[in-house]
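Question: does this match?
>
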Amino acid sequence: AITSEGSIQGIGLVKESKFKNPGKEAVQVTVPKYNNLVFNHIVVDGDSVSVQQNNRSMQLNKGDKGAISAKYKLFPELDFGKQGYMAELDTSYQVVNGQLAYLITVTGPDGTPVKYYYDQKTGLKVKQVVDMPNTSGVDFGDYQNIPTGIKIPFSEKTTLAGQPVEFKVKTAVVNTGISNDVFKK
């Protein structure tokens, strides 16, 4: 479970992300200033994907579901060796935030391609781009160890509602016994 904070045009946002294996992800962005208005709520439970924006459910097609599921996975790299995944290393280095990076395009079993950029020196993921309308890539940085010794990015830069936002991790806890109810629509 990860809690992050950011802001858009001076208005504070809180992002709560919860993950549980296998294939359960829940991400909710709220606006505390407006009585904890739920700006965005995404739930992935295997093949079931639901998205609400401003308390309205969005209709999703199969491609949208695959892209959303891919975008919010905590450690997508754990799936790369599974049946149905195809990874392709670009033959050239890419430049991400002024640093050289490897580009690996991974296509999942549902046909959704995702571009992952890994820092040439550290091997850490610095960017991820899912090919989906009205969405931008996510830049990752400020990797820190969490209690299990795993490093996660404590900074995520992306866009919400067309506005740039940087979320900074405030808390990250592991193995807290998250209820399966969290991952229901």
About this structure: The chain is about 5% helix and 55% strand. The longest strand covers residues 11-20. The mean pLDDT is 91.
